[in-house]
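Aspartyl/glutamyl-tRNA(Asn/Gln) amidotransferase subunit C: structure, please.
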Amino acid sequence: MSIDRATAAKVAKLARIRVEEADLPALADEFNAILGFIEQLQELDVSDVEPMTSVTPMRLPRREDVVSDGNQQAAVLSNAPDAREGFFAVPKVVE
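Here you go.
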């Protein structure tokens, strides 16, 4: 597959990228180079390669899923301008 100037202009328009008319041949060449790399990758046999999510095999640390208050009440309320009885105190706005 080869990309010509008209296709490069169409891709630029779809991507909302302004490309000057003089720069379209260079953009088409870049697209063709990218497609060439993709064709090279398609030649590889990856049928025996396991899918992976990271280049380093590791398991995510897990914790027990329990409901808790976070034990952060004092730290959270330390930033409050007014706290009473373990809660944020706010001015009354309803009469």
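Notes: Residues 68 and 74 are 15 Å apart (CA to CA).
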